[in-house]
Structure formats: structure tokens, C-alpha cells
Write a structure and sequence with these properties.
single chain, 208 residues, alpha/beta, 4-stranded parallel sheet
Length: 208
């Protein structure tokens, strides 16, 4: 049975609380194992102390065909996110270090964006500690204005928490904006003075 919410199109299989790498039939299983192994290599190259300060994020805007080059289904996407989290967990377990991994870094359109909504649905219904995400990330680019960034971010945050009240304690962050960079006047082009305000208000909003 599919979820009644028209913005979420996932089946009961995605609601399983425990997921293991390779547990499901997945045409992208080689990519999942590669992701798992790559994270070990990163920690070995740069050192766990340095890498533990990094902020890791899942696949960029996974619902867009231009980025979802593997054509992942919701179930396959959940496998990918879980594999990434397991790789991070394994890489940091020996040193008892913590790590920051979030997502889905998406646009969260109401239609045709089942991966972004699907991972939040999974995290909302999962037991404590099963959700692979430590924070929720999204993209609200603002159309070139600070007000657009802030207003768009607040509307989406409210919508997410309304749909998934169990996620209200998770940090949220707008990870991608498009502020006004330049102002053209009669004397030439210069940096737009509202850029600093846009960046500040966006950062402040992301800590809500």
C-alpha cells in the first residue's frame, strides 16, 4: 500500500527499520559497495581527526534527472544513503570519533521528487538511531534575493515539520542559495551590498 500523501510515493519495503548493505536486490549494488569502500580511503588519506570535522552530505538534488545518473528508485536511494552512513560509521568507529552526515540536499518539489520526501518518511518512521541522517539539508536558492532565500526556507521547513513532526529535533540547513552577486550602475559593475545580508540571513535561518 502506498502512502496516502501525494508528495510521497514509497512502498512498505522502504519502511523497514533495519537496512544492511546489499540486503535488497539492487541494480546499483556495485556503486553502493564502492561508496562504502571510498569513505575508508578518505579517512586514511587525510586522517580521522581532520575528516571528522568535515560535513558530509548525500547525493546532490537526487530527484533531478541531470544528477540522478544512476536512475535510482526510492528503495535504491535509501540503500545508497544507508551505505554511505555505514561507510562513515565504519571509518570513524576505531577512533571513537563522531561525524556529520546529512541530506537529502534537494529541492523538495511537491511532484516528482519522491527521493527527498522518501528519505524523510523513512527517518520519521524509523526507530531511534536507525535514520542515517544527522541533519536535514535542502536547497532554496531565493531567486537572487535575501528575502526569497529566507522566506522560501521557512516555508519549506514548516512544511517538513508539519508532515514529519518526529523530525522537529533534527537540525535543518539550506545548503545552496543564489544571492545577488553584482550590481550594475551608471559607473560600472560592483559587488552587490546585499550579498553579505543575504549570506547572513541564510546562515541564521539554517540554524533555526
Amino acid at each position: 500500500m502506498k502512502n496516502k500523501d501525494p508528495t510521497i510515493d514509497i512502498n512498505d519495503d522502504t519502511r523497514r527499520e533495519r537496512r544492511e548493505i546489499g540486503q535488497t536486490e539492487n541494480k546499483n549494488i556495485d556503486h553502493i559497495h564502492d561508496q562504502h569502500q571510498a569513505l575508508f580511503g578518505v579517512s586514511e588519506s587525510f586522517g580521522v581527526e581532520i575528516v571528522s570535522k568535515w560535513r558530509f552530505e548525500s547525493w546532490n538534488e537526487p530527484d533531478l534527472k541531470g544528477y540522478n545518473c544512476l536512475n535510482m528508485s526510492v528503495l535504491e536511494y535509501l540503500d545508497y544513503v544507508s551505505a554511505t552512513n555505514e561507510g562513515l560509521k565504519s571509518a570513524f568507529s576505531a577512533s571513537n570519533s563522531t561525524y556529520k552526515f546529512g541530506g537529502p540536499a534537494g529541492l523538495f518539489r511537491d511532484k516528482n521528487h519522491p527521493l527527498c520526501w522518501g528519505i524523510l518518511e523513512f527517518c520519521s518512521s524509523a526507530s531511534i538511531g536507525v535514520c542515517p541522517l544527522k541533519f536535514v539539508s535542502f536547497h532554496r536558492k531565493g531567486g537572487g534575493s535575501a528575502k526569497g532565500v529566507v522566506d522560501g526556507s521557512l516555508v519549506l521547513i514548516d512544511k517538513i515539520f508539519e508532515k514529519f513532526p518526529m523530525l522537529k529535533k533534527m537540525p535543518v540547513s539550506n545548503e545552496q542559495i543564489r544571492p545577488p552577486l553584482f550590481t550594475t550602475t551608471g559607473t560600472g559593475t560592483s559587488w552587490d551590498p546585499t550579498l553579505a545580508l543575504c549570506l547572513f540571513t541564510t546562515t541564521d535561518t539554517g540554524t533555526r
